Amino acid sequence: MKFLSIIADGFEDMEALGTIALLRRAGIKVEIASVFNKKTVVGSQGVQVIVDKPMKRVKASDYDGLFIPGGAHSFVLRETETVKKLVLEFYEQKKWLMAICAAPTVFGIMGIMDSRKYISFPGTEREMKKAIRVNEASAVRDGIFITGRSVGVIYDFVFEIIKAVFNQKAVEELKKNIVY
Q: Which domain holds residue 93?
């Protein structure tokens, strides 16, 4: 199992790095790509990340899923044509599409989540078109989409991903491994 995470300056540090670290602990390879092809990307709290590759070298066919962390970069990503093109490739290939906090709006604005259940950061629902918000949830899976509310629920978000791509036993193994 191999996922891609795309980031740009302003990504939410904990959502990106916490999620990626937990996914890797669960046995999923995660590569990080810079949307604007920079070698180093700076998060919202000043953490600098040296990426694995520039997005211009990314092919959706090399991955099983796409993870987009939230943060201020979400508002730029959802307007960036290369991001929309990449998301559409993952969507058309029926690969996992995962986003947390404000990042589900990337999918929502594109209309690919219409009639699908989701959760995102409060206040972003106006950008989700006809998607169905599940307010009481911290993480939601609907088909190939897995969404999370915010930085405070990264564990629930990751557990939902692990359950979807592996099974509940894998979630319990991860919980044991991290003494959750």
A: 2-177
The first and second tokens of residue 89, run together, are: 């490739």
**CA dist., res. 52 & res. 119, Å (int):** 29
Q: How many domains does the chain fold into?
A: 1
Instruction: Indicate the helix (H) or strand (E) that contains 155.
Output: helix 154-165
30 and 67 in contact (C-beta within 8 Å)?
yes
Q: Where in the chain does DSSP place strands (E)? A: 2-7, 29-34, 40-42, 48-50, 53-54, 65-68, 96-100, 117-118, 132-133, 139-142, 145-148
* Rounded Cα–Cα distance for residues 55 and 35 (Å): 5
Q: What are phi and psi of 52, to 5 degrees?
A: -75, -35
pTM of the model: 0.97
Q: What CATH number should be reported for the domain holding residue 81?
A: 3.40.50.880
CB 43 within 8 A of CB 16: yes
The 10s digit of each residue's pLDDT in 110-168 is: 999 999 999 999 999 999 999 999 999 999 999 999 999 999 999 999 999 999 999 99
